[in-house]
Structure formats: structure tokens, C-alpha cells
Design a protein that fits this description.
Elements (H helix, E strand, L loop, with lengths): L2 E2 H8 L2 E4 L5 E2 L1 E3 L9 E3 L13 H7 L3 E4 L5 H6 L1 H10 L4 E4 L3 H16 L5 E5 L4 H12 L5 E3 L9 H6 L7 E5 L7 H9 L3 E4 L7 H4 L2 H9 L9 E6 L23 E8 L6 E9 L2 E8 L14 E6 L5 H16 L4 H8 L10 E5 L2 E6 L5 H12 L6 E7 L8 H14 L6 E5 L3 H11 L9 E5 L2 H11 L4 E6 L6 H8 L6
Parallel strand pairs: 4-5, 5-6, 6-7, 8-10, 8-11, 9-10, 11-12, 12-13, 13-14, 18-22, 19-20, 19-22, 20-21
Antiparallel strand pairs: 1-3, 2-7, 14-15, 15-16, 17-18
Helix pairs in contact: 1-5, 2-4, 5-8, 6-11, 6-12, 11-12, 13-14, 14-15
């Protein structure tokens, strides 16, 4: 992004109330401590902190342009004596744009930038309850076999993060953007900024059920990813997901989705009737390999009986769910004319992201670090990876609470216990942390009596300190240890302290 203050003001419908309209901004910043030369500073009003309080520091730090919803005119700036004093020191080299709402203004800037300056860059938008980030990185990895690809950085998939990422797209050939939502109405705003040319929905689970109310509401919100492009968008879905499996063009209107915004629904997965179908799944020390076939359709829309092409795919990232993510990535590659065999070769080098199923080898112990976040589907998937570790002398699961599951939370934790019971004999020890993890233990013991064959040793801890000390004392060479729980439970810090700081 390289935009003058006058252009920024026009894009967001603001008013330039101080400084020159010629001042150039080349990046957006929301952290006042990092608002350096060339920055457009956007003060975010949070629950605890209103970043307008730091505008004086931002002006002193050299930012090129500042948005403000607290100052409607230069006269109001003058009454803010400390801020105005710093602005006067800078003279015309800093601009202030008055807006009604800083986040809304940021989204408008991104929307205008996308349409006016980078409309020729195809954007793949990715959403879903879990698996968004891994699918994003897999898609970028696969596309990069032939294209220069921009991808969302870190966890910048929010109402603020998405527009920031849009404005960072430059001379790349394609972009892959992750779009996350937790409240009704959020997708429309960030989809308008991203304007995706193709959309991926990884699955519909129960993350954010507390705010969205039902899985149908979650589906409706995720599907609104197609609303921003202003043209029909192909939607690639994980057809193995129970609620997505029944999605059809005919059913979109019932979900309040305008069918004219959808260019087609491409079903991807291991299920019958998929446009992109996988079979012959095998796990090698937890890492999947499978055959992938691409089916074309007749003029009447029915799938051809024989695939147009097939290829073998081997991944280096553990977990069956990685196969689902890879299938979606390769389906999108084929849609955009990428050589899918080259894309699959590129995916063979993909490794799990930090905290999202990454595998560490430390002191002869295999650590599966899946501590970034947790929902029922992803916890079952992570446990399945642990169950598949046939070479391990002991398989140990360290599980913490899953957050934001709403009224069904206790029931869903009990179901995890039942899932472990179904796989009795594939796990030796179960270490639980958090109040809700009590329901995992109860679900396990309801399904398996304490003395049943294969019942794992189960211990609960009321503090991370006690859990850490137990693991340090009891771990053994040859163990495979899974860490899985919601990010707020702090298991990631435990993994860092016990293993990441001691690799090698």
C-alpha cells in the first residue's frame, strides 16, 4: 500500500482536518509503540483501552497519518493541547483524518484499496470453525509451486486483521486470506474488504456457539464469505463435515444466501459424490497419504463416472485432518489452473504450524504440540494422531478445557471422554487440566469402568505448575505426548518451557 492522506480520506469517507493531503502512508499500524515513519495509525477502541489516548505519542513517533474519531475538526484538535503541540512540531508532515468509527474506516480503506489498486489479484478466502490457518498455509504452499503468493500473517483474520492484510497485498500473483468471525454480521464487513474470488469452508463445528447460537447460524455466517466479491464465487467445502455434506445450491436461499453470489459448490473429501474425492487413506507415523481424484460434470450437472485425473498425495504433517485441508488446497489449485501434481509435491514439504499439531523430538520424546486452540472436532483429530503413534512406548494425552462452546460445553467435554473410551488401549495416560476437563474424565469413566482393560491412568491437576512438575518427573524416553486445549488455558507456555527451549 502506498496511499496519500487525501486518498485515504476519500476511501474512508473521512475529513482531512490537519496536515498535507500529500503525506504518504505505506503501511497500517494499530500499535502506538510501532507507529513509525510511513505508518497510518488506526486507534482501536477496546473494552479496556482507547488507543486515542496515545495519539500524542504517535505524532511524536513519526507516523505519517492518523485516524481519529475523537476529533471532528482542527478546532477540536487545538483543544487537545498536548496532541496539538506534537502535531505543530511536525508541521505539515503529519496528517489527521476525522472519521466516525476507526474500525469502520479501516475496513472502508481496505475495500477501496482492493477494488481500485489490486482488483487483478485473485484472492482465495478461507473460513470455517477449525482448520482455517492450516488450510490457509497449505493453500499458499500449494499455489506457490507456480505463483507468488501473499498469505495472511499470524492470526490477523479479524475485523481489524483482515483489512490490514488486504492493504499489504502488493505485486503478488495471488493472495490467500483467512477470515474469522465470532459474532453475527462480522463476515459481511471483512468479506467486503477481501472480495474473494474463491472461498473455502473447512468445516462447521461449534466454535463460537456461545455467540452465534447454533451450528446453522454458524453456517449462515461463514457462507456470507461470498457476499463481498460483487460477482459469483465458487465455494469449496469439506463434504465430510456432517453439516456441510448436505449443502447445495438449492438450499442456499433457505440460509439467506443470494444464489447469484455463488458460482458453484465444489464438494471435496472422502465421501461419495465429491467433485474432488480422496480414497486409500493410510497413516505413516501419523502422517497421511491418499489417492486424490478430480471428477468433471456432465452438462446436466451430474458427476462423470470416471475421474478426469488422479494422483498420489503424501503429507509430512501428522493427522487425518491434514488430508482434508490438503484436498481443499489442491481443489483450489486445479480451479485456478495450477499443475496439481506440482502442487502436491509442494505440499509434501509442508510441516505443521507452531502449536497446531507440530511434532517435536526432544530428549527421545515425541511431542505433539496442538495447544493453540481446541474444539471437539480438532481435539478428536489430535487424539487420533496420538493413537496412531505405534512406535511410542507410552502414549500420553495432556488435555485442557475447550472454551466458548456455550450451553452444550459440559456435554461436549463428556463426548471427548467417550471418544477416548472408544479407543481404549491406544492411550496409556490421560492428564487433565481445568474445571471443564472434569467432564472428560466423567465421560471416560461412564463409558469404561475404572478396571476395564485399556482404561488409561487418569490424573487431574488444578494448576499448570503442578502439571508441569508431574510431567518433568514422569516423562520417559520413548514417550509420545499430546498437548491440546484452548489457547487461554496456557498449555503452549508449558510446551515452550518443557520442550521448545530445550530442543537439541
Amino acid at each position: 500500500m502506498r496511499l496519500k492522506a487525501a486518498e485515504l480520506s476519500a476511501l474512508c469517507g473521512g475529513s482531512l482536518i490537519y496536515g498535507s493531503g500529500e503525506n504518504m502512508s505505506d503501511h497500517i499500524c494499530i500499535d502506538s509503540r510501532k507507529a513509525d515513519s510511513g505508518a497510518l495509525f488506526v486507534p482501536i477502541i477496546g473494552e479496556r483501552v482507547d488507543a486515542h489516548a496515545f495519539l500524542k505519542d504517535v505524532a511524536a513517533g513519526g507516523a505519517s497519518c492518523i485516524l481519529s474519531s475523537r476529533h471532528g475538526s482542527e478546532e477540536e484538535l487545538r483543544r487537545d493541547e498536548e496532541l496539538y503541540g506534537e502535531l505543530q512540531k511536525r508541521g505539515e508532515s503529519v496528517s489527521v483524518i476525522s472519521v466516525k468509527d476507526t474500525v469502520g474506516a479501516l475496513q472502508s480503506i481496505a475495500k477501496g484499496y482492493r477494488r481500485k489498486y489490486i482488483s487483478s489479484v485473485p484472492v482465495v478466502g478461507i473460513t470455517g470453525s477449525v482448520g482455517k490457518t492450516t488450510t490457509r498455509e497449505m493453500t499458499a504452499c500449494a499455489l506457490s509451486c507456480e505463483k507468488r503468493v501473499f498469505a495472511t500473517k499470524g492470526n490477523l483474520n479479524s475485523q481489524v486483521g483482515v483489512p490490514m492484510m488486504v492493504t499489504e497485498i502488493g505485486d503478488e500473483d495471488m493472495a490467500v486470506l483467512e477470515l474469522g468471525v465470532s459474532m453475527p454480521g462480522e463476515m459481511d464487513r471483512i468479506a467486503a474488504a477481501a472480495a474473494p474470488d474463491a472461498a473455502i469452508i473447512t468445516n462447521i463445528g461449534i466454535s463460537h456457539m456461545e455467540y452465534l447460537g447454533s451450528r446453522e447460524n454458524i453456517l449462515k455466517e461463514k457462507l456470507r464469505i461470498v457476499t463481498g466479491a460483487g460477482k459469483p464465487v465458487p465455494v469449496f467445502i469439506n463434504a465430510d463435515n456432517d453439516i456441510l455434506s448436505g449443502l447445495s445450491m438449492e438450499g442456499l436461499e433457505a440460509l439467506s444466501i443470494d444464489t447469484s453470489s455463488v458460482a458453484g459448490i465444489y464438494r471435496c473429501g472422502f465421501s461419495e459424490g465429491c467433485d474432488v474425492r480422496a480414497d486409500k487413506l493410510e497413516l505413516h507415523e501419523g502422517c497421511p497419504s491418499f489417492r486424490l481424484s478430480f471428477y468433471d460434470r456432465n452438462k446436466d450437472g451430474r458427476l462423470m463416472e470416471e475421474p478426469e485425473m488422479s494422483l498420489e498425495v503424501k503429507l509430512s504433517a501428522p493427522g487425518e485432518h491434514m488430508a482434508s485441508d490438503a484436498i481443499l488446497a489442491l481443489a483450489v489449485c486445479r480451479y485456478f489452473g495450477i499443475d496439481v501434481k506440482k502442487a502436491a509435491e509442494s505440499l509434501a514439504s509442508f510441516r505443521s504450524l507452531k502449536g497446531r499439531g507440530e511434532k517435536l523430538e526432544v530428549r527421545g520424546i515425541t511431542v505433539i504440540n496442538d495447544s493453540y486452540n481446541a474444539a471437539p472436532d480438532s481435539m478428536k483429530a489430535a487424539l487420533s494422531v496420538l493413537f496412531s503413534m505405534d512406535q511410542a512406548k507410552r502414549r500420553i494425552a495432556v488435555l485442557a478445557d475447550m472454551r466458548e462452546l456455550g450451553a452444550e460445553s459440559r456435554k461436549l467435554h463428556r463426548e471427548i471422554g467417550g471418544f477416548i473410551a472408544e479407543n481404549a488401549g491406544k492411550i496409556d495416560s490421560l492428564l487433565l487440566y481445568g474445571e471443564l476437563s472434569r467432564d472428560i474424565e466423567e465421560g471416560l469413566h461412564d463409558a469404561l469402568s475404572d478396571k476395564a482393560e485399556g482404561t488409561p491412568e487418569t490424573l487431574r491437576f488444578d494448576s499448570l505448575t503442578k502439571l508441569r512438575e508431574y510431567i518433568k518427573t514422569e516423562e520417559r524416553k520413548g514417550d509420545a505426548i499430546l498437548f491440546k486445549g484452548s489457547n487461554s488455558m496456557g498449555l503452549s507456555s508449558l510446551v515452550t518451557e518443557l520442550y521448545e527451549d530445550k530442543k537439541g
